[in-house]
Amino acid sequence: MAPVPAVCYFLLMVKTDRNCPVYAHQRVERALRKAIAETQARGLLPRVELPGPVIERPQGRGHGDYSSSLPLKLARPMRKSPMDIAGLIAAEMPRDEAIGRVDVARPGFINFTLSPAWIAQQVDTILDSGPSFGNVNAGAGQRVQVEFVSVNPNGPIHVGHARGAVFGSALANVMEAAGYEVEREYYVNDGGNQMALFYRSLHARYLQALGRDAELPEGGYRGGYLVDFAREIVEEEGDRFLSMPDEEAVTGLGEVGLRKMIDLIRQDLRELRVEYDVWFIEQSLYSDGLFGKVAALLEESGYLTERDGAVWFRSTLLGDEKDKVFIRSNKAPTYFASDAAYHYNKLVTRGFDRVIDIWGADHQGNVPFMKAMMTALGLSQDRLDLLLYQLVTLRRGGETVRLATRAGELVTLKELVDEVGPDACRFFFLTRSPDSQMEFDLDLAAQQSKENPVYYVQYAHARICGIQKLAGERGIDHGDGRVLLLTHEAELDLLKKMLQLPELIEAMAANLSPHYLTSYSLELATLYHRFNDSCRVVSGAPEDLPVSKARLKLVAAARAVLARCLGLMLMDAPEQM
């Protein structure tokens, strides 16, 4: 697994008198800056601007828990050797109970090692934090909308959409944990040629269900779901659409079919544990008059022009290579035009501070136009993030699985969930960044073994539950456990990994990268299994009881952190396997 693309610190929480979390990396950075200021105040070092970041996590275990390469960066502006700078700063480091040792290493690093006793005390911090452990306030309550999936409601959700569904729902959870106010939204594209074709296809199936001769329109939808819809409509509505003119019948059936398709999509996504706060209907942009308002704003600003019988958006004024059709010659708005009104609705009408759109990679060409549109509407491009996800290849028995059947129907999301379960779907889709190609190994996802990463992580949680059950049966109460007895390397390594979660959440929210939850949870599970194999938790010997209680506290904290990770990924935390 690749490292998180940001400076990643151990975040060890302590409570201040205002009950606000303070992280160890902040304490180390604060102490480092204070030491630099002291050396400058005493004239030992000249005053220069400090580059950031000032601390980072070292690559090897022998270089402490944090490291600063600041002396190397300051050597030129300060006109001193990096080792001299490092030595002067280290000598002025103030005392802090979290920092156990400060070392200077060639060619000019300052390494910080946390106090093992202070680390052990953080078990109580985790337990006191409860299910909120890991939360940070990076978002400070900013309102963020995450829009994902949003495929045309003309067919069931298929495997190609599942990746965006998993990524979007996990990202929304991470953003909430990072202090943002998040709204999850599905944009229902109920207009355009594809939906018109869907409605006409449903009309043909309806006629066939009533024994009438009817041909599907050219290029019409042949999926069996339309046959099922038509039968249901006949059962529910009878033949009342037969007496209507064709266009009226198509419109009426289309409304019924749209509701049924949205219900089917909603149900399929729920199987993957994906829920939305808002289902936004595209046609409301037109019925409410917002599209006309946005078009008028763009025209007044000089960004719309008529050419070849159509209306064009003049994105070349904003540096793009070509303009884009806004309204076709038949007076029908393009998808791009609808998106312009939709994003005006998001950012202006509803006033979100930030909007995150998660699209399939086939929408790559629309990204520069959407950024240009933000500028044309007088909105900061920084308020819109457009994330693209690549396609997924399914494999079984070492062979690629055909995604389409002979009838032209794609493998649906429901079929995938039925085969491997929602937990495997979610974990596997999150193992890679969305902009990378990925293969989904169906055989591995279905395995009940340690080779399956889903099983491996969930087994760690179940293993903890088993130990807690055993302790309960033996009447061991760890409430008075003394965490300072936790001194074994496996205990401290596990705890350090647990205490990375808050900063990991902050980094994932900043980089819009929830997929690092999978690698983190695997590392956490590995360290737990190692601890469990190295340190006996429940012992029958009376003299071992104090250590058992301390370790049971650590186990309880590990369970909480594992459950939090699984919860952020919308996965089960099983008590037995």
Main traits of this protein?
577 residues, alpha/beta, 5-stranded parallel beta sheet, disordered N terminus, 20 helices, 13% strand, Isoleucyl-tRNA Synthetase, Domain 1, Gyrase A, domain 2, 3-stranded antiparallel beta sheet
Any low-confidence stretches, pLDDT <50, length ≥5? 1-21
What is the third-level CATH name, the topology of one domain? Answer: Isoleucyl-tRNA Synthetase, Domain 1
Biggest sheet record: 5 strands, parallel
> Which radius of gyration do the C-alpha atoms yield?
29 Å
CATH superfamily of one domain: Isoleucyl-tRNA Synthetase, Domain 1
The CATH first-level class of one domain comes to Mainly Alpha
> What is the architecture of one domain at the second tier of CATH?
Orthogonal Bundle
Strand portion? 5-15%
What shape does the CA trace take? flat
End-to-end separation in angstroms reads 26 Å
Number of H- or I-type helical stretches: 20
Q: What's the mean pLDDT score?
A: 92
**Sequence of strands across the biggest β-sheet:** 8-7-6-12-13
Class by alpha and beta content: alpha/beta
**Strand elements, count:** 16
Task: Explain what you see.
The protein is an alpha/beta fold. Among the domains are: 14-114, Arginyl tRNA synthetase N-terminal domain (Gyrase A, domain 2, 2-Layer Sandwich), CATH 3.30.1360.70; 193-260, no CATH class; 453-568, Isoleucyl-tRNA Synthetase, Domain 1, CATH 1.10.730.10. Helices cover 47% and strands 13% of the residues. It contains 20 helices and 16 strands. It has helices spanning 24-41, 70-78, 82-91, 116-129, 159-177, 193-209, 224-237, 246-271, 284-287, 290-300, 335-349, 367-376, 413-420, 422-429, 442-446, 453-473, 489-498, 501-511, 516-534, 545-568, and strands at residues 14-15, 21-22, 66-68, 99-105, 109-114, 143-148, 181-188, 278-281, 304-307, 310-313, 324-327, 354-360, 384-389, 392-396, 399-400, 438-441. The strands form five sheets. A five-stranded parallel sheet has the order 8-7-6-12-13, sandwiched between helices. Strands 3-5-4 form a three-stranded antiparallel sheet. The chain has a three-stranded antiparallel sheet with strand order 9-10-11. β4 and β5 form a beta hairpin. α6 packs across α7.
